[in-house]
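User: For a teaching handout, I'd like to show students what a predicted protein-ligand complex looks like in token form. I'll give you the sequence and the SMILES for NAP. Please answer with just the structure.
Assistant: Understood, here is the input followed by the structure.
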Amino acid sequence: MADNGLILVTGAAGQLGAVGRTVTGLLLDRGLPVRAMVRREDDRAAALRASGAEVVVGNLLEPADVYRVVSGCRRVYFGMSVSAGYLEATVTMAAVAREVGVNALVNMSQMTVSQMSIQNTTPSPQQRQHWLSEQALAWSGLPVITIRPTVFLEGFFLPLTGPSVRDRARIELPFGQGKTSPVATADVARVIAAVLADPGPHLGRIYELTGPRSQDMHGMAREYSDALNREVTYADIPPEDWERELKKVGLPEHLTRHLVTMAELNRAGRYDRMADGMERVIGRPAMSVREFVSLHADEFGGRRA
Ligand SMILES: NC(=O)c1ccc[n+]([C@@H]2O[C@H](COP(=O)([O-])OP(=O)(O)OC[C@H]3O[C@@H](n4cnc5c(N)ncnc54)[C@H](OP(=O)(O)O)[C@@H]3O)[C@@H](O)[C@H]2O)c1
């Protein structure tokens, strides 16, 4: 199928550091044309337009919107916020991509899917939907590339440990003694941009992405301390207290159940994992926790001189 080079990136507005937004920037930096899909016109949409993307507005749960935004693109990055309609959006995208015809569909998933099967699932509705989404995409026969990152530094550790590190120099999470190897979305986006720039060699592949080290939360706290030049410690808080706090800030039930499951899996050692997807695609490991915290020092309350 002729490829005019135009690449669709869904979920492109995001927060600073979110996948779709970063992928859009990286593709534009490579001189590639990008159609950036956002949910509404706002400052983020204006910034994407100013950076050179063609901005389109639509809802990934509306088939007609998805048809309109995919039409004319042969390469697609599909990802959106953790939310209850994720499976429906994926299947809608698959139906449209089959109808329109695409040469590459890069699907954002999660590394926990690697540990899942019919007999072995998790209580997270998001992880269940990613597992089913991967199944449906496999049945679709589409040229899919699957991205399975472990937990994100930007999307999890920055918002959920930033305030307590800033205020009390403590990482407060119910992760027990479990190890984890978080990855920066900046690195995840680098992998996705490289795949979209030249999808051919990657078709059908699954890339699992982790940071360069798997360590318990005391080890993570030492990396925070080194980056900030002040002591940061880990407090293993009761899971019920954490869940109560998540509910207090009014997170949707779908997201709360996902986060509570992540903590459970962490305590059970299920996030103790390493993978070589970064090296396979871009030839180098992801950034370390120390490098990440150093880059975001202000958001963690600053570095002591
Ligand atoms: N966070 C982690 O630790 C982690 C780890 C591994 C994998 N993942 C996966 O990464 C993905 C999330 O990536 P991210 O953090 O970059 O995403 P994100 O920033 O949370 O979301 C991207 C965009 O999706 C848009 N969106 C949501 N619902 C939509 C709809 N119905 N139609 C159109 N757009 C919609 C949102 O628009 P608005 O901003 O306008 O609401 C948002 O800007 C998920 O698949 C998640 O499972 C996350």
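For the handout, you might add this sentence: The longest strand covers residues 144-149.
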